[in-house]
Amino acid sequence: MTRPRVPQLICPAGSLPALKAAVDHGADAVYLGYRNDTNARNFAGLNFDHKAMVEGIRYAQSRQRQVLMAINTFAQPGRAADWQRAVDGAVDLGVDAVILADVGLLDYASQRHPALRLHLSVQGSATSYEAVNFAHREFGVRRAVLPRVLTLAQVETVIRNTPVEIEVFGFGSLCVMNEGRCWLSSYATGESPNTVGACSPARYVQWERSPGQMTTRLNGILIDSFGDDEPAGYPTLCKGRFEVAGDTYYALEEPTSLNVLEILPEIARAGVAAIKVEGRQRSPTYVAQVTRTLRAALDELARDAQHFHVKAAWQATLAKVAEGSQVTLGAYSRPWR
Amino acid sequence: MSFSIPRFKLPGVLSTIGARLPQWPHSLALASALNVAARIGLLPDDSLALLEGRSFLVEVLDAGGQACFCYRDGLFRPLFTAPASPDLSFRANLSAFLQLLARQEDPDTLFFNRELSIVGDTELGLVIKNMLDAIEWPQLPTLPIFRH
């Protein structure tokens, strides 16, 4: 009997201590980005300046881990050169791959740096093998990250019909998952992940406290209000509570985190090359907790896939750090489809 | 095994007493500690520049203590009277602050669980949070007492 191939574990790094936490706790690769709008986690004070980037890459690669650089927003009119420079810079730094979404940038990178390994970002919104194979044929993309909208059976269909490695999300905050095509944030603020690298940019967010409750506004628009004992989520429009036909509820999406521990054996069997942890905006503590847990689960799977079972302690750790303090299998499990 | 800070809440009487004590020593102590951290290079200059002229309130709910300070001309300065509306306030029980500082819990986790409240300028809050996350704490000495 052959041992199942276990997916690589790809962990988020929004800072140097987070990168070190990921490497120290068993990530096979880390992903990171510049401190600017070429990066879909362009938050104040987050990410890497040049010095931290050099040290982080050295730290990971000297321990035989890979560094993937996310340049995963869309080049804005008149500023394509900024995104091209970001790709050139990644090559100079010696990263193991770049994660791109913009078709124009993929074209630039493949022509200018033929040896550079290209990953198609989740923001590239490729949900079918035709889309993945297009990126492979035109730009030589070696891996694609699938949006969190597919069932496990659909993920398997993509894998069976493409030579491109497939990466899926394993843990982290969920949104409506219309990745690369979502304009909800722009509707309220004029800015979105695809344009400025942030959903619900912080300067538009107001948390207001009053006795017994906290309300959240985005650019003045009331999104939600929480009683003192209710768990909170990120201040995004898709996770707001709205009045629909007389009922007020999470009309689009509940604050929750994806967690694939339960279906890890199926994911490995389907031939998924890598699972990714969301959360470059979170602290080194989160990165350490989640990386350690998923590493333990993957090692257990590699050791004995037949008798793999999810430990209660793993689930407890992941549920604690989850948004809204709850987890879901998300689109992977849609029995009604 | 490493030491772990439990989740606890101080007895209610402490917040009653604590709130009646003078608050300026907390402000002075916190501002001084931050200045030391800045001087030894733990806090990056580009993030510090974003704090210029802003005021902060840190309130330890179950201890009844609070610290107020501002950042002006490159120094953290204690404020001996709390501003009516500081640019940013952090409120939590002592255990949550200790867990945060020890990197035992993640600030977003504490926020989701409603154990940490952040009110005021959200972007400023993000700058502070990310500045604290990016600090590379010096390694603890490997004395036998730290090894369990």
List keywords for this structure.
heterodimer, A: 337 residues, alpha/beta, TIM Barrel, 2 domains, eight-stranded parallel beta barrel, 11 helices, B: 148 residues, alpha+beta, Nonspecific Lipid-transfer Protein, Chain A, five-stranded mixed β-sheet, 6 helices, 38% helix
Structure overview:
The complex is a heterodimer of chains A (337) and B (148). By secondary structure, chain A is α/β, with parallel strands linked by helices. Chain A has 2 domains: 244 residues, Phosphoenolpyruvate-binding domains (TIM Barrel); 56 residues, no CATH class. Chain A is built from 11 helices and 15 strands. In chain A, strand 9 and strand 10 form a beta hairpin. Chain B is of the alpha+beta class and 148 residues long. Chain B starts with 11 loop residues before the first helix and ends in a 15-residue tail after the last helix. The longest helix of chain B has 16 residues. In chain B, strands 3-2-1-4-5 form a 5-stranded mixed beta sheet. Helix content of chain B is 38%, strand content 20%. Chains A and B meet through helix 1, strand 8 and helix 10 of A and helix 5, strand 5 and helix 6 of B.
Brief overview:
The complex is a heterodimer of chains A (337) and B (148). Chain A has 337 residues and is α/β, with parallel strands linked by helices.
What is the topology?
The complex is a heterodimer of chains A (337) and B (148).
Chain A: E1 8-12, H1 16-24, E2 29-32, H2 50-61, E3 66-71, H3 80-93, E4 97-100, H4 103-112, E5 118-120, H5 129-139, E6 143-145, H6 152-160, E7 165-173, H7 184-189, H8 193-196, E8 205-210, E9 213-218, E10 221-227, E11 242-244, E12 247-249, E13 257-259, H9 264-269, E14 274-277, H10 284-303, H11 312-321, E15 327-328
Parallel strand pairs in A: 1-2, 1-14, 2-3, 3-4, 4-5, 5-6, 6-7, 7-14, 13-15
Antiparallel strand pairs in A: 7-13, 8-9, 9-10, 11-12
Helix pairs in contact in A: 1-2, 1-10, 10-11
Chain B: H1 12-20, H2 24-39, H3 45-49, E1 54-60, E2 65-72, E3 75-78, E4 88-92, H4 94-101, H5 107-112, E5 116-120, H6 122-133
